[in-house]
């Protein structure tokens, strides 16, 4: 068995104690007046207990057992004061560095030992001096054990407080990261939804202007490009205003609502006219009903993104936007468009639009479906359908 390496402080303590005990022995200073053993025998328990003190941190229980044996052996010699002092440190180290079970038992055993030794001294000596000897036993056993127990409890409390502080800091950092991630996602959705529609129209009409050698068509395309450029610039300025720190005298910019769907569909109608697309809005909501602002914003952005995708990919035909809601029920948003290859200029897509739609719906605990579906009897055989169901909750009762 390989002994653990002693701590440097324990080495200093053991060597200093041994040298101090050796000095007392050389001067003839003992704790007892007479003994049947020679004077040099005092050095044996001193050497043993000082050697064991080297492992007071790594082997606290073993050190206590060997130190106790050394102290008992010291009682049969002339005695050395350093042996007693080192034993008190051994008791202290056993409680401080030992296991929790050992730390609980040593003070109890020390107390019982002190009481028993006091009674024995009083019975044997028949003199009050036995009480003083009992106090001495308590000083070298109970006092260091209680002191170490108090320090151990303080260290445990400090470690627990440090652990709680680290956990609190970790949770705060996780909350901060989640908040930043959520805010970045919201900003990305807003930026995509506000600008993608205008940029898609610009890409389609600029491609048409470059591919068709017709002055009137080019002039019309340039007009649409300018209109969408101005609108996109205004939306970008609005987003930048939202990101900047607002002063106390500034009001937050109004979020889009479903009241603006007519204008949104009209703009899509203008942008898609050259591609053979027509647009229709069918609002079947209950008149006079009000929706929470997050629901209106999500529905508006879903329609906006669906119209943008239709301008990019839909074949010739009608794009239909339908809204439905009964009293107290969820809002249903359905956007259908012709599915198939379309001749002429098309804008490239990144696929982030559908991701943004799903994120908005998930935030409201709703459902969304997007993909090909059978068309109506009097229309194309296959259509592209985006259908989102947005639960409507009372502002005072957030969704579970």
Structure commentary:
The chain has 400 residues and is an alpha+beta fold. It folds into two domains: 8-167, no CATH class; 257-400, Heat Shock Protein 90, CATH 3.30.565. Helix content is 62%, strand content 11%. The protein is built from ten helices and five strands. It has helices at residues 8-27, 43-52, 60-75, 81-97, 100-125, 129-211, 215-243, 261-272, 293-313, 352-363; strands spanning 277-285, 317-325, 331-338, 367-374, 382-390. Strands 1-2-3-5-4 form a five-stranded mixed beta sheet, covered by helices on one side. Strand 2 and strand 3 (331-338) form a beta hairpin. The longest helix is centred in the middle third of the chain and has 83 residues, at 129-211. Mean pLDDT is 81; it is low at 247-252 and 396-400.
SSE topology sketch:
Elements: H1 8-27, H2 43-52, H3 60-75, H4 81-97, H5 100-125, H6 129-211, H7 215-243, H8 261-272, E1 277-285, H9 293-313, E2 317-325, E3 331-338, H10 352-363, E4 367-374, E5 382-390
Helix pairs in contact: 1-2, 1-4, 2-3, 2-4, 3-4, 4-5, 4-6, 5-6, 6-7, 6-9, 6-10, 8-9, 9-10
Please sum up the structure shown.
The protein is of the alpha+beta class and 400 residues long.
**Principal-axis shape:** rod-shaped
Strand arrangement in the largest pleated sheet: 1-2-3-5-4
Main sheet record: 5 strands, mixed
Count structural domains.
2
- Low-confidence runs of at least 5 consecutive residues: 247-252, 396-400
Helix-and-strand structural type: alpha+beta
First-residue to last-residue Cα separation: 61 Å
Give the overall pLDDT as a whole number. 81
The counted number of beta strands is: 5
| Count of alpha and pi helical runs | 10
Q: Percent of residues in beta strands?
A: 5-15%
- Give the helix proportion (percent range): 55-70%
Radius of gyration: 44 Å
Run of helices and strands: HHHHHHHHEHEEHEE
């Amino acid at each position: 068995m390989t002994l653990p390496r002693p701590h440097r402080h324990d080495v200093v303590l053991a060597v200093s104690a041994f040298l101090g005990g050796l000095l007392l022995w050389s001067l003839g200073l003992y704790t007892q007046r007479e003994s049947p053993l020679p004077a040099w025998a005092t050095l044996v328990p001193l050497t043993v207990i000082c050697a064991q003190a080297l492992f007071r941190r790594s082997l606290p229980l073993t050190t206590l057992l060997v130190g106790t044996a050394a102290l008992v052996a010291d009682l049969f010699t002339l005695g050395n004061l350093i042996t007693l002092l080192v034993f008190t440190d051994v008791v202290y180290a056993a409680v401080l560095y030992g296991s929790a079970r050992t730390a609980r038992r040593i003070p109890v055993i020390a107390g019982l030992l002190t009481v028993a030794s006091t009674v024995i001294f009083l019975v044997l000596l028949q003199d009050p001096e036995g009480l003083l000897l009992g106090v001495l036993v308590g000083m070298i056993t109970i006092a260091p054990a209680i002191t170490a127990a108090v320090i151990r409890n303080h260290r445990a409390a400090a470690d627990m407080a440090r652990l709680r502080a680290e956990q609190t800091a970790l949770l705060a950092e996780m909350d901060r990261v989640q908040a930043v991630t959520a805010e970045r996602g919201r900003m990305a959705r807003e930026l995509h939804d506000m600008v993608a529609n205008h940029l898609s129209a610009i890409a389609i009409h600029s491609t048409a202007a470059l591919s068709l050698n017709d002055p009137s068509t080019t002039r019309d395309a340039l007009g649409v490009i300018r209109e969408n450029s101005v609108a996109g610039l205004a939306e970008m300025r609005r987003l930048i205003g939202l990101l900047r720190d607002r002063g106390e005298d500034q009001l937050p910019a109004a979020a889009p609502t479903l009241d603006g769907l007519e204008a949104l569909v009209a703009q899509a109608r203008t942008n898609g006219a050259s591609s053979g697309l027509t647009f229709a809005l069918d609002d079947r909501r209950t008149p006079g009903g009000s929706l929470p602002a997050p629901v209106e914003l999500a529905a508006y952005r879903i329609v906006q993104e669906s119209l943008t995708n239709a301008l990019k990919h839909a074949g010739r035909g009608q794009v239909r936007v339908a809204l439905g809601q009964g009293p107290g029920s969820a809002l249903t948003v359905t956007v259908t468009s012709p599915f198939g290859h379309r001749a002429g200029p098309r804008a490239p897509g990144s696929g982030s639009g559908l991701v943004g739609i799903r994120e908005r719906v998930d935030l409201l605990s709703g459902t969304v479906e997007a993909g090909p579906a059978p068309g109506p009897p009097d229309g194309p055989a296959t259509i592209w359908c985006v259908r989102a169901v947005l639960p409507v909750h009372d502002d005072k009762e957030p969704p579970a």
